[in-house]
Design a protein that fits this description.
488 residues, alpha+beta, Immunoglobulin-like, 5 domains, Ig-like_dom_sf, protein tyrosine kinase binding, transmembrane, Ig-like_dom, membrane
């Protein structure tokens, strides 16, 4: 064969006639951006130098040369097969000596898909080899979406194989999409259309099953917006009298224009109606140190502060919102028996839909401030049967959900008499008043006793008049002597 034949590819008609005479082409799948190896092996034992040419068939035009090597060892590349000065397609020199002329394509592109032909001269058992390269790629538009935007996720194979089946996985788990699919019946799952949220964030993988062979391609979808809490209707638990933290954290690199907090009135799920924020509400929490953290807090939670709160943020003219529910817990005590001193403690929450179990823990404090945990009892209510030191200090009610502990609330008691902390503090002034009255009464009794003694002494003196005259005369003389001393 004349070497000059490698310098100019045959006419399209000759190529088409040759393709018809060939067997079915070898199919190779490659993910866009990866490496593809197109096989071409010759079993001839000839030791003569060979010329190799790889060409790609183009629709409606002559095949284009990709890579060519002359018998002299000179190599040539076709236009469009370089990337940043590096050739994307070439044969491995170390394999040429053993008759392996496979073509390696680096950084595969979608447009690389199609039919390739390998020709070797002088020929062997495989003078010409035909390979079909199919390039699989997952395209996400837009790849970085704002929460609530429409996102299109497409699995494409170039050229597309007929009767291929497509399956999707998200973060290595099968994805059950809820949005409408592509209207083309032949490829019902080729395109997914979803609303950008936390549910669709992550690594999307398209698996194409064709003739019993499965090939995959992946791409990542990033959704920016309010990342904490990640979903609406997140329940936050707090106890009466404690501080509550209402999180609202945005993606770090978003340009925040404005933000606001609202409390929604009850039974306003579909059409939220704004209510009044609690008096202890603070629009910024201690942890809010960055512009994308617009969390808030309640300094001292009251039982009536329960309900739904909405955080709003404006990003580039688009408003993002997140609704969260504050569940408030408290302990109510009631006297069962005054004679026995029995008290019932009840753990109450404004919403118990997520609560699966209650647990009471007895906390005892030592003289040096040490803390120890005593008995643990189950149930929503706790009955303390008798007044004893065993029931002093604190009882903590812990409530649990399916994922673990949700929160806790503490009851402070002393000789559990059914009195709350407010009643105990109210009794303190009464005790002080009783002590004061007792001291006053004691002083009055002492005065009355002294007056009684003086009266008895005078009574005894009046029984002896002569003695009274002597005492009176002695007293007058004593007074005169004191006056004379004062004149001197």
């Amino acid at each position: 064969m004349d070497p000059a034949a490698f310098r100019s590819p045959p006419s399209p008609n000759i190529f088409q006639m040759f393709y018809r005479a060939q067997c079915e082409a070898t199919e190779v799948f490659a993910e866009a951006g990866s490496k593809a190896l197109l096989p071409c092996k010759c079993s001839s034992s000839s030791t003569l130098p060979r010329a190799i040419i790889w060409s790609k068939a183009n629709s409606g035009s002559s095949p284009s040369t990709i890579w060519r090597m002359e018998r002299s060892g000179m190599q040539y590349w076709g236009s469009g097969w370089t990337q940043k000065g590096i050739q994307r397609a070439r044969c491995t020199n170390s394999q040429l000596e053993i008759g392996d002329y496979s073509l390696q394509i680096n950084s595969v592109r979608e447009e690389d898909g199609g039919y390739y032909t390998c020709r070797v001269s002088p020929g062997g058992q495989v003078p010409q080899n035909r390979v079909l390269l199919r390039v699989i790629k997952v395209t996400i538009s837009p790849p970085v979406a704002i929460w609530g935007e429409d996102v299109s996720i497409t699995c494409n194979v170039t050229p597309w194989p007929n009767a291929a089946n497509v399956e999707w996985t998200l973060n290595n788990s099968p994805f059950v999409h809820q949005a409408e699919m592509n209207s083309i019946r032949q490829t019902p799952k080729k395109v997914l259309r979803e609303e950008a949220n936390s549910r669709v964030t992550g690594n999307w993988t398209c698996a194409v099953d064709y003739k019993g062979k499965v090939v995959r391609a992946s791409s990542t979808l990033t959704v920016k917006g309010i990342i904490n809490p990640s979903t609406d209707s997140t329940k936050l638990y707090s106890a009466v009298g404690s501080e509550a933290y209402l999180p609202c954290v945005l993606s770090p690199d978003l340009n925040l224009s404005s933000s606001a907090w609202e409390k929604l009135k009850p039974r306003s799920l579909f059409k939220p109606v704004t209510g009044h924020l609690p008096t202890t509400f603070s629009p910024s929490s201690p942890s809010s140190q960055t512009p994308w953290d617009i969390s808030a807090s309640l300094k001292e939670v009251k039982f009536e502060d329960e309900g739904k709160y909405r955080c709003s943020a404006t990003i580039g003219g688009q408003q993002l919102t997140r609704i969260m529910q504050l569940v408030v817990a408290k302990i109510e005590s009631s006297v069962v028996s005054k004679k026995k001193g029995s008290v019932t403690l009840t753990c109450q929450l404004t919403d118990t839909s997520e609560v699966t179990d209650y647990e009471w823990v007895h906390v005892v404090y030592g003289l040096n401030g040490t803390q120890s945990f005593g008995s643990i009892k189950k149930g929503k209510t706790l009955i303390l049967n008798e007044v004893s030191e065993e029931n002093w200090d604190e009882w903590v009610c812990r409530f649990y959900g399916k994922q673990g502990i949700l929160g806790n609330v503490t009851h402070h008691s002393q000789i559990t008499s059914g009195l709350t902390g407010e009643k105990s503090s109210a009794a303190s002034p009464n005790i002080a008043a009783i002590v004061g009255l007792s001291l006053l009464l004691l002083v009055l009794l002492l005065i009355l006793a002294q007056m009684y003694k003086n009266h008895q002494r005078r009574k005894r003196i009046f029984q002896y008049p002569a003695l009274e005259t002597i005492v009176h005369t002695a007293s007058n003389q004593q007074e005169e002597r004191e006056r004379s001393r004062g004149k001197k």
